[in-house]
Amino acid sequence: MDGVGGVGPSAVAPLAKWRSDFSRAFRYYLDRSTPHPVQRWLGTLAIAAIYVLRVYYVQGFYIVSYGLGIYILNLLIGFLSPKVDPELEILDGASLPTKGSDEFKPFIRRLPEFKFWYSITKAFCVAFVMTFFSVFDVPVFWPILLCYWIVLFVLTMRRQIQHMFKYRYVPFSLGKQRYTGKKSSASSSGLPRD
């Protein structure tokens, strides 16, 4: 009577094995993509373009797009923010260095770049799938949503930039800094350098 009225253990085992194999293969390719940020972001841009074309073609799903925009704005704030908020750190007695003699503390993001990329890519994929269900196509006047999102973006970014200036941190680095050092005596004397 094991197989009557329900799914028996023999039917669950292949499904669990397939899910495990799929999860392992997905994780393998995700891990292999980690050292290739340019290619990852180009792929996300392609997914975003497909989503925009779908919304444009259907002429709908503006609420889904608005929700997607709010979610991406939230992720951007996490990406630009330090892991430890300096405003809360002041209460504990420690803070970011403000003078040259203070201890150097590197900028560590609250949301690392890989997780930022992965979350945005998943969000575009979920939003794309939502465009195939008419229940999510709520009729709205989209220019109002767009204006509201722009105002929200400007106010949020203004506050974030003020926070960056106040606590003197820069969330971007353009690679490893190189020490040029002093010019050697050979270059100042006119002798050729090796």
Description of the structure:
This protein is mostly helical. It has one domain (14-96, 106-170). The protein is built from 7 helices and no strands. α2 runs parallel beside α5 (113-130), α3 runs antiparallel to α5 (113-130) and α3 (62-80) packs parallel to α6 (142-167). The longest helix has 26 residues, at 142-167. The radius of gyration is 25 Å and the shape is globular.
Brief account:
The protein is globular. The chain has helices at 9-33, 37-58, 62-80, 86-92, 113-130, 142-167, 185-189.
The tally of domains stands at: 1
Elements, N to C (H/E): HHHHHHH
Q: What's the gyration radius in Å?
A: 25 Å
Q: Mind describing the biggest β-sheet?
A: none
User: What is the terminal-to-terminal distance?
Assistant: 86 Å
What share of residues is helical?
55-70%
Count helical runs: 7
Average pLDDT rating:
82
Strand-helix topology:
Layout: H1 9-33, H2 37-58, H3 62-80, H4 86-92, H5 113-130, H6 142-167, H7 185-189
Helix pairs in contact: 2-5, 3-5, 3-6
Which characteristics define this entry?
mainly alpha; transmembrane helix
